[in-house]
Amino acid sequence: MLRTEAAPVAPRTGDAPAREATAATGRRQGRTPAEPRRAPAARDPFLDNAKYLAVLLVAAGRAWEPLREGSRAVTALCTLVYAFHMPVFALISGHLPRHFEATPSRLLTGVAIPYIAFETVYTLFTRRSSDDPDRPITLLDPLYPTWYLAPLFIWRLTAPAWRSVHPTGPPPRPDSPGEPPTQDADQRRIPLQPPAALIIRLRTLRSISSAARRTRRARPLGDSMRRSTIGSALLGSVALAALLTPGARADDVVGNLDLGTFKITGGGGSGNDVVLGITERRTITVKLTASDDSGIKSADFTLYHGSTLAKADAKLKATETTAACTASGTTSTCTKHYTIDPRASLKNSLAGTWKVAVQAKANDGDYVTTDGHTSFFLKRYAKLTANASPEPIAKGRTLTIRGKLSRANWDTHDYRGYTGQRAYLEFRRPSTTYYESLGYTLTNSTGVPTAKVTATADRYWRYEFRGTTTTSAVKAPGDYVDVR
Fold this sequence. Notes:
The protein has helices spanning 16-28, 45-64, 72-95, 104-129, 149-157, 159-165, 185-188, 195-201, 205-215, 221-243, 342-345; strands spanning 251-254, 258-265, 274-276, 282-291, 296-305, 314-315, 324-328, 331-340, 352-362, 367-380, 382-389, 398-409, 414-417, 422-428, 436-442, 450-454, 459-465, 474-475, 479-481. By secondary structure, it is α+β, with helices and mostly antiparallel strands. It is flat, with a radius of gyration of 34 Å.
């Protein structure tokens, strides 16, 4: 059992008369000697450091996850971290409420209100940033890390019940007569300082040097151990930070084989974007170049959706079994063709980032295997209209421009309004060929943007949607308004 009381001090011979005189004075005045007070509960630096390291391990596990494919070392490291870092959080969260009073106000302000607030914010963020604009705000399907607040609420709510079942521990053993009081293991432990305090205290290299000079002077053992712990925490933090910034690709590379450009033609979008509606199939041509001083023996690639190739939830099926490669000196261009049918191959959850896994081998034995050579976007086709009214309009009157932003729904095979998106209002003078932007308005629940302006002269009016990672960009045809 962890204790927070100060360690008792062995009695000294010279103090006995003073204590007896004090006790006698108290009896003469009708008072009994005061009982020693229990020190107020304090934060346990050991638990603070444990939580700090567990948070770093969570971040490290997330960063290493994309690198698992093709690397046994990273896979073993991730398995090791995931085996205990969340149980550590659970154990600490279950240990701390031992003395927690489950009052309604503390449960609400400490867990319930943060859970509701962050779940609402995360849901609104998901609506704007992903392909799920109609996701409901619900407390039964937590997003991101908010899932942990739900069991934490239950742990704290049931803390009094668990205390009644399992006592906090036996009372301290009385000291034998004539022996000085002893310190238990918890009282002998030298506390670790939280890393947050460490960062505040050691702000500059000069302060570190000053601390190093002070350590050479005579000081108590506890202070020396505490400073050593601070230095170890610093070094551990730096080491973990370095591990959190690995390369972006999990490559297995032998030799000097080089993967070159990746190009998609026929995608219907800008760059390598592939855009599909709800009915028409699209055939794309994908080319990859690879080079080696001995020439390329073979190369192939796979287009997939998911975190890694092993965990892919979808792969595009090529017309060819393997890529057809054409050599030009030491460089080969390998080609595949894909025909994508939105009615047979796609669903809304597959819109967004797709990755390219490549396996290439040179004539001299050099090779490259990677899950993340590059990526591209598979997008849902968008439509946009604009209508300005009234037409014609008197100068100085208010002109209302409405539109409709919709996009392909691969689940229902129709077009649905795109909610909460920026529709930029633009105008063009009859004597020019370019549009100027006045700003943007958000589309409503049915995908309709609405803006009001003052009519000053003849203009063409339109909306522009600049696209997202899941939906193509689109511009509405201009609507001419005669101002009289």
